[in-house]
Design goal:
The complex is a heterodimer of chains A (363) and B (131). With 363 residues, chain A is mainly beta. Helix content of chain A is 3%, strand content 43%. In chain A, 48% of the residues are buried. A five-stranded antiparallel sheet of chain B has the order 5-4-3-2-6. The chains are: A mainly beta (363), B alpha+beta (131). Chain B: Keywords: Acetylation, Cytoplasm, mRNA processing, mRNA splicing, Nucleus.
Chain lengths: 363, 131
């Protein structure tokens, strides 16, 4: 009997989720940070002040760990360092902040001259790259927070995303219509790509040095070293974010039609698509082990989806039906029975549906 | 062609959300030992540190150590001492959530080798393995 995807909805944000990032795999598993645009509801005494509340979650289950409190505006970008000991956020209050991701304490506030949109740690967590509406890339030495950051100018419109690449020897940055490659040591531009349409997202895959860029309905793959195009796919709707599976077998993408699409990276064939969000999808990322992907939407939810539907992983538990039986078999090992009715309830609770949303699975 | 009947993938539970009254990051949370600043319990200078929270910290550390020992056993040969002096050996697979059952494979019993088996924890007196 075929299984259908049960997305897991992570509650907490009630405002649009605009960015999300996974950490690397640590001895404690992996973690997920999400950023949202405005006032969260989970601390009622603070309502009335509209600011984004980035949240840290356990990556494989979506369980909430904590909320980083301190920003006074929408949080546009959030990231974790590789071992999830530090977090960084970029906000509309003209600051980027660095946090202790174990205690939740704020470590540093880095003042900027305009809205900050993007933050990224180097592999060794010694430097933080920031970018935003003031069109400057800034590099902060986190061991010398009082020192002035190094600045790289050249962008002619607000920076949407900035990433370290090539073992932190280079920097990739995207503004509305260009993607630029910079050399870290000389702080000069190496190459640039121009687009006719607004670049909506960028993801860097270190293994294989691949850059994933989305613009319009296109999902494009370029070499991160030379910016030469590798391949590109067209989606049925405007795409806001895409992510490539660590083993480069699949990619997932989501955008303005509220749907998530999964493609075979080699052939470009659309493998699966899911309805479930009831707002445009702003960000989508594969987990570092590739077993799930997370999507953040205008509808204020973060959802986790299985890469291989029906596999036992995290909170998803595969129960195989017995042969010659029409019913779902009771689990043999003693954990609480979940009847099919209860499963349907969980699935529909998860969807937060106003209208029915049966996921389309194109096998 | 009929649409195939599909069943939704079962889930153990929903992801836990914010607790509604705190910012989270439990002080004695699972990652606390990673932080180098956390002092040893005996050297802790905080006078108000109650015996209770010291005990809780010790319990949490021991529990974590036990769970990690289970993780370290996966795929290894483990020998179990059961009741009435019976000893069996097997490849350890997993335990269930309450550690009430041990899922093993290639269980060597006095009457033959069982490809897959569940050992009830209540039947096990002790077990040992070399990592």
């Amino acid at each position: 009997m075929a299984m259908r995807q049960t997305p897991l909805t992570c509650s907490g944000h009630t405002r649009p989720v605009v960015d999300l990032a996974f950490s690397g795999i640590t001895p404690y598993g992996y973690f997920l940070i999400s950023a949202c645009k405005g006032a969260g509801q989970h601390l009622p005494r603070l309502s009335g002040q509209h600011y984004g509340k980035p949240m840290l979650r356990q990556g494989d289950t979506g369980d909430w760990i904590g909320t980083f409190l301190g920003h006074k505006g929408a949080v546009w970008g959030a990231t974790l360092n590789k071992d999830a000991t530090k977090a960084a956020t970029a906000a509309a209050d003209f600051t980027a902040k660095v946090w202790d991701a174990v205690s939740g304490d704020e470590l540093m506030t880095l003042a900027h001259k305009h809205i900050v949109k993007t933050v990224d740690f180097t592999q060794d967590s010694n430097y933080l790259l920031t970018g935003g509406q003031d069109k400057l890339l800034r590099i902060y030495d986190l061991n010398k927070p009082e020192a002035e950051p190094k600045e790289i100018s050249g962008h002619t419109s607000g920076i949407k995303k900035a990433l370290w690449c090539s073992e932190d020897k280079q920097i990739l940055s995207a503004d509305d219509k260009t993607v630029r490659l910079w050399d870290h040591a000389t702080m000069t531009e190496v190459k640039s790509l121009n687009f006719n349409m607004s670049v909506s997202s960028m993801e860097y895959i270190p293994e294989g040095e691949i850059l994933v860029i989305t613009y319009g309905r296109s999902i494009a793959f370029h070499s991160a070293v030379s910016l030469d195009p590798i391949k590109s796919f067209e989606a049925p709707a405007t795409i806001n974010s895409a992510s490539l599976h660590p083993e480069k077998e699949f990619l997932v993408a989501g955008g303005e039609d509220f749907k998530l699409y999964k493609y075979d990276y080699n052939s470009g064939e659309e493998l699966e698509s899911y309805k479930g969000h009831f707002g445009p999808i702003h960000c989508v990322r594969f987990s570092p082990d590739g077993e799930l992907y997370a999507s953040g939407s205008e509808d204020g939810t973060l959802r986790l989806w299985q890469t291989v539907v029906g596999k036992t992983y995290g909170l998803w538990k595969c129960v195989l039906p017995e042969e010659d039986s029409g019913e779902l078999a009771k689990p043999k090992i003693g954990f609480p029975e979940t009847t099919e009715e209860e499963l349907e309830e969980i699935a529909s609770e998860n969807s937060d549906c106003i209208y029915p949303s049966a996921p389309d699975v194109k096998a | 062609m009929q649409t195939p009947v599909t069943i939704p993938v079962p889930v153990l539970r929903l992801p836990r959300g914010p607790d509604g009254f705190s910012r989270g990051f439990a002080p004695d949370g699972r990652r606390a030992p990673l932080r180098p600043e956390v002092p040893e319990i005996q050297e802790c200078p905080i006078a108000q540190e109650s015996l209770e929270s010291q005990e809780q910290r010790a319990r949490a550390a021991l529990r974590e150590r036990y769970l990690r020992s289970l993780l370290a056993m996966v795929g290894h040969q483990v020998s179990f001492t059961l009741h009435e002096g019976v000893r069996v050996a097997a490849h350890f697979g997993a335990t269930d959530l309450d550690v009430a059952n041990f899922y093993v494979s290639q269980l060597q019993t006095p009457i033959g080798v069982q490809a897959e088996a569940l050992l009830r924890c209540s039947d096990i007196i002790s077990y040992t393995f070399k990592p």
